[in-house]
Amino acid sequence: MTMIFGVPLAVFMGQLMLGLINGAFYALLSLGLAVIFGLLKIINFAHGAQYMLGAFAALLGLQYLGINYWLALLLVPLVVGALGVVIERTLLRRIAHLDHLYGLLLTYGLALIFEGALINFFGVSGSSYPVPEALQGGLNLGFMFLPTYRGWVLVAALVVCLGTWFMIERTRLGAYLRAGTENPALMQAFGVNVPLLITLTYGFGVALAAFAGVLAAPLYPVSPTMGSSLLIVVFAVVVIGGMGSILGAVLTGLGMGLIEGLTKVYYPEAANTVIFLVMVVVLMLRPAGLFGKEA
Amino acid sequence: MTFNKTLLASTIAVTAMMASGAQAQMSNDAVRIGYLADMSGTYRDLAGPGGLEALEMAVEDFGGEVNGVPIEVFSADDRNSADVGANTVRGWIDQQNVDLVAGMVASSVTIAVTKVLEEAGGLGIVSGSAASSITNEHCTPNHIHWVYDTYPLAHGTAKAVVEQGGDTWFMLTADYAFGHALENDVTQVVEEHGGEVVGRVRHPFPTNDFSSYILQAQGSGADIIGLANAGSDTVNAIKTASQFGLTQAGQQLAGLLIFLNDVHAMGLEATQGLLLTTGWYWDMDEQSREWAERYFERMGRMPTMVQAGIYSSTMHYLNAVDAVDTDDPMAVRAQMAETPVEDMFARNGRIREDGRMVHDMYLAEVKTPEESTGEWDLYEIKSTIPADEAYRPLSESQCDLVNQ
């Protein structure tokens, strides 16, 4: 059997595949963070909680309203995104003129409130969300048995990431968004409704998190703490990629998934730390991040 | 954990006014019990607020006071951090004169806390932790280990599995004190019975995504994948294994530490047939059922073995305080050890000199959805492991308190 650094090729390939799937989650979540930071200059600490709300909304929708997975994939981002719009209109807007730190504190507080409230009702053991029927079973890739659902997650996440990138970098709306980031006052003078743009952007970023939450629901136990454990890693990914860089967030997310996957084979004890090691090195060599513009 | 200073001040004032000789042996005119547990993290549901409820139930059933002084209950969240746990307990003992520390879940926290208890001359009853090292190399005269530990878990489950023909094992181990202890105990049992551990992977605690480790386990070709982890880690591992078709391909999972709440959360579909060792089950006999139903009325959930153990150990402690007429830790500890434990929790229970409360343990099998008659009808008790055989024999003990 072909061996790579003492690991059979098949196992190695399998780990790369799984790393890529985890990376797709990192990419999807860090993309939302990057979009929000890019336009609103808000470090959205509620992102993990919004991801968790997405998963919970899917679970509760299924249990109480009979909303199936596919409908949830469509509806949940809209509902949670709408909650994001409300948060932006009623809370974030009031502190928009203050230092970024206040936005961070506010969103962090919101995250703790969402998490605490759900822990109170559901505990932390979590519940399981069934894998939709059409995606049950698995594919034999030759080097590994890939559960169909995980394959779907990879495809869906990549499509959404590329779609978002295309919308922001290649469309008129995206051009407004990018211009709004650079110089909101001038945009306003041109007759563009910048406050509306900001509200919708925040709502969109939150909807991305909720979408990731629905994707994650059948994979991981749906529990109130599922977001907070992921959020720190996702922040590290955004820092490595460069704050506010869309493509940077996506590529770094996938890359970090791969690095983490390989660490799990060669030195599993460090799997939770390796991303932070990369972050330290990147910050030392390129403080603006791999894809960030030097200030 | 800010202590209510007003309450303290008024307590002191009242005590000063009614200073009486009869209470001279009770420190601070109150028996104070501090409940330390993971109240919000991955181990919340196996002890957590439900354990606090069990403790308060014991205090109420006891009548709320002992030797004429009130019983006061404190609680704190250790957040599975050894530092937080040790500092909390130090504060409790130094500033608030807490007489008994109860609860204690993550083994790493417990080991740190028992060191504090030993230095400060306090008393602790460990109900939630699993590491057998707590009454082995880490034993102190200041703590008792109540519900279970990794020794009977490994011996009960691993022995049963090897005897059924599962003799090659791959260990999936949580990378901290408890996981290591369990892995060692299992390896020993498997090898003693002619099996072999062909590989292992130590995963960080806690871990959300087990797919990579399950793939490694799959690649190992072992018959049995032993899960030396607990709480949400075990739940995640079992779910992931079923997604990757591990059991369909002929490999079998052996859960070494599975709590009632885990089985309840995963459902019988995913867990049926799983063998496990438990220290208590709510439906095991008349006494346990009667108590569990009272608990259910308060909490809306059936108690885990840890929550039942917290009730049992608190009662045993209060009875001892009552009997010796003092809350002096060493006197109470001695009295507790002299009295056999026979209640809604323990059968043939007694406290050994190393601090281990040995009692009958049970090998259980998770029921199939067809066999189960209700939401909490989850286990079938297959056999009883007698108290004297269940735990590590004193002849193998590394504890300094044991005369060899």
Automatic annotation (TrEMBL), chain A:
It holds the Pfam family BPD_transp_2. GO terms for cellular component: plasma membrane. One of its GO terms (biological process) is amino acid transport. InterPro entries: ABC_transp_permease, BCAA_transport_permease. CDD domains: TM_PBP1_LivH_like. The chain crosses the membrane at residues 12-39, 73-92, 104-129, 149-168, 189-217, 229-254, 266-285. It is a multi-pass membrane protein. GO terms for molecular function: transmembrane transporter activity. It is found in: Cell inner membrane. Its main location: membrane. Keywords: Amino-acid transport, Cell membrane, Membrane, Transmembrane, Transmembrane helix, Transport. Belongs to the binding-protein-dependent transport system permease family. LivHM subfamily. This is Branched-chain amino acid transport system permease protein. It comes from Halomonas cerina. The lineage of its organism: Bacteria, Pseudomonadati, Pseudomonadota, Gammaproteobacteria, Oceanospirillales.
Automatic annotation (TrEMBL), chain B:
Keywords: Signal. InterPro entries: BCAA_transport, Leu-bd, Peripla_BP_I. Coiled coil: none annotated. Residues 1-24 form the signal peptide. Residues 31-367 form the Leucine-binding protein domain. It comes from the Bacteria. Belongs to the leucine-binding protein family. This is Branched-chain amino acid transport system substrate-binding protein. It comes from Halomonas cerina.
